[in-house]
Every structure is written in C-alpha cells, then in structure tokens.
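#structure-requests
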Amino acid sequence: MENKNIIHAVGKRKTSIARVFLREGKGRIFINGKELDDYFRGYIRQKHAVLQPFILTNLRDKFDVKVNVTGGGVTGQAEAIRHGISRALSSLSEEIRLKLKKNGLLTRDARVVERKKPGRPKARKNYQYSKR
C-alpha cells in the first residue's frame, strides 16, 4: 500500500506517540477514527494546539489528516499530534519548515515525569522530619 501522495511523520510528547498521515484534501482531521471535534470534545486549547501548524502556514483546508495516537493524557496527545503534523508539513518546503521552526513547533518537548526515588514518597518530596 505505497501511496506517493501521502506524507507520514511521527510526533512525540511525554509518553504520547502520534503517527500522522497527510494527504491532499479538504481539511478534515481524524484522530483514532474520530473527527477532531469529537476526539477533543470540550478541550478548546488542545484543538487549537492540533490546528496551530495549519494556522501558521495557511494550509488549513488543503490537507486531510489521519492520526493514530497512543499513550499519555489529553494535552500530551494533542501536542504529539501537533509535533507530527509540523514534521509532516516541514517536508513540503523549506519556507514552511523555517516558519514552523521559528515558532518552536519542530522541537520535540523532551520533558517527562521524573522517576520516584527509593525512600521517598514521590520523586523529590521527603517524609516530614520529626525531632521527638
């Protein structure tokens, strides 16, 4: 199933991984088989994050997007999708790539949850010291 007019990219954020497939179309976005509005129902900030690469490049109605995303929470998934869409769009032209890079959308946000340390209740929190 090799199709030449499909652009594929992977976006990541925290523990979320988004596989993004772009093809020319009318601007419809499907995430795990659901429309964007259905998948992020009630999450306005996350919808905006997904659309941000298209808004910056004025390509909103030129591509259909199919996304498979796993892991993490709502915000992590939205930002992983944004990262994947940005990487896919950047392969179109150098001008688009520079615009996305200038706005920080091609940089993978590497912040992850710090591991829990032994002898502590959380990663950094300590048990309360009692003198008596």
